[in-house]
Amino acid sequence: MAGAVQDNMTEGFMSGLAHYVGDDNVIVAPDVRASYETDWTRRWHGRCIAVVRPADAAQASEVLQMCGDRGVRIVPQGGNTGLVGGATPRGSAPQIVLSSARLTKIGDVDRGAGQVTVGAGVTVAALQRTARTCGFEAGLDLGARDTATVGGVAACDAGGLQAMRYGTARRRIVGLEAVLADGTIVRRLAGLPKDNAGYNVPALLVGSEGTLGFITQVRWSCVSRKEARVVVLIAVESVSEAVAMATSLRWGVPSVEMIELLTETGIRLLGDRLSAPLPVPPAPAWVLVECADSVDPSERLIEVLSDLGVGERSAFAVDASSRRRLLRLREALPELITQDGISHKLDVGVPLDSLSAFYDELRQLVRERSPSHRLIVFGHLGDGNVHVNILGPDPDDEAVDAAVFELVAEHGGTISAEHGVGVLKARFLPLVRSAGELRMMRLIKQALDPASILNPNVVLEEE
Ligand SMILES: Cc1cc2nc3c(=O)[nH]c(=O)nc-3n(C[C@H](O)[C@H](O)[C@H](O)COP(=O)(O)OP(=O)(O)OC[C@H]3O[C@@H](n4cnc5c(N)ncnc54)[C@H](O)[C@@H]3O)c2cc1C
């Protein structure tokens, strides 16, 4: 076993875990545990008694049963790139991190169905490579692709850059295998296009953020490969102009796959920090668009952009390296913000026609709280989903989070579009979910995990 056993747990428990998963997969050494105990943003951290890494559902089942018998809580973790505190230990009760790191098996791609079964610990990048090798695309992409896992995107119902075209993870997941709190293994991996024989168990587990089961395998439905791609970056005068542009592109250009928004403070940050000159002038907002098709999608895109009067204020990229240069601007932002401190990262969504008013009111709100706070907004414009980043407030100060979520609710939006509720938003859920919905969620949790050992205080606060 790696490292010293914690005082508050018996040797018996640890050696029992090691019996099922192997000595090397019960990690107790504090220096090795540390990376599992703090999240990507550094806002969330806690202590676990061990990190446990099962190799399959059967081993995970034994671990869950042992934890259930001892009242030890379980925090499922994949790549630990989640941004809402759901994968890091919390509170003082004994808890383990249950890691999917060894669940990395990739099955054969079923070319007829366009589906593949992969272990929950397979990274999004590895899934994408597998799909491409067989002439498909995964149909889901996000900046954290090299670390985020398929189990993690399933658990969060992640969205990402292509969600406007291919949907969130929920649309791509056609089956899964998971272990419930009492050790029951639930397996539904056939991926039948039509199958309404009973409740849709995978659908319940997708988006459950590790509170209803530990996902061990996922059946993924790929999309057809589109070789011809074009990326364009456009400087616009306002978020309102960006929204109008997104609407025209969405309905006027069938090949559009991604429409992203960058706003003034983020653009300034890129200008200040990146060594290469900006490809278009700094502006109140930028719109970054990617189109993909089996034949060159440029013609229709240019037609629509010309109608919108987009000329010199845009940069167009067709070859792979120029496309990557433009896409990199958007991807660099989260990293640059993190370099400047621990930001309050709030992933929210509002109806597209409210986005511009929401943005103006948000700026006002943050300015009024403190002129020294920095607000950086960017995100998935095509889905009305923006990432609100606020640098300045103490990481533990929830007041600014509360104010932003209230504003979102006033605009008929959601406090979580794709990152999940985690611990960050659990107490704010009543802002956007009715009493009936919350009761149903509690009844489901109570039925599947009566002792609340699976990720307590994530999604629903303990009563
Ligand atoms: C740079 C960057 C860019 C990002 N971009 C996007 C984006 O565009 N769109 C988006 O949606 N998200 C984005 N994210 C957030 C994050 O990558 C996603 O939420 C992703 O789905 C998390 O996957 P993970 O494997 O890292 O999960 P983790 O962070 O390990 O866990 C996230 C949640 O899922 C649960 N979980 C993890 N694995 C399992 C499992 N096997 N079984 C049950 N529960 C499990 C955890 O308990 C936790 O509640 C980004 C993050 C970063 C750092």
Briefly summarize what is shown:
The chain is 34% helix and 20% strand. By secondary structure, it is of the alpha+beta class.
Describe the structure.
With 463 residues, the chain is of the alpha+beta class. Helices cover 34% and strands 20% of the residues. It is built from 15 helices and 17 strands. It has helices at residues 11-21, 30-37, 57-70, 124-133, 150-156, 163-166, 169-172, 201-205, 239-252, 264-273, 298-307, 320-339, 355-369, 399-410, 435-448, and strands at 26-27, 50-52, 73-77, 95-99, 115-119, 136-137, 173-179, 185-188, 214-221, 223-224, 228-236, 256-263, 285-293, 314-317, 344-349, 374-380, 385-391. The strands form four sheets. The chain has a seven-stranded antiparallel sheet, sandwiched between helices. Strands 1-2-4-3 form a four-stranded mixed sheet, sandwiched between helices. It has a four-stranded antiparallel sheet with strand order 5-9-7-8. A hairpin with a 4-residue loop joins strand 16 and strand 17. Mean pLDDT is 95; it is low at 1-5. The structure holds flavin-adenine dinucleotide (FAD). Flavin-adenine dinucleotide (FAD) binds next to strand 3, helix 5 and strand 9.
Shape assignment: globular
Strand numbers in spatial order across the main sheet: 14-11-13-12-16-17-15
- Total beta-strand segments: 17
What would the average pLDDT be, to the nearest integer?
Answer: 95
Helix content: 25-40%
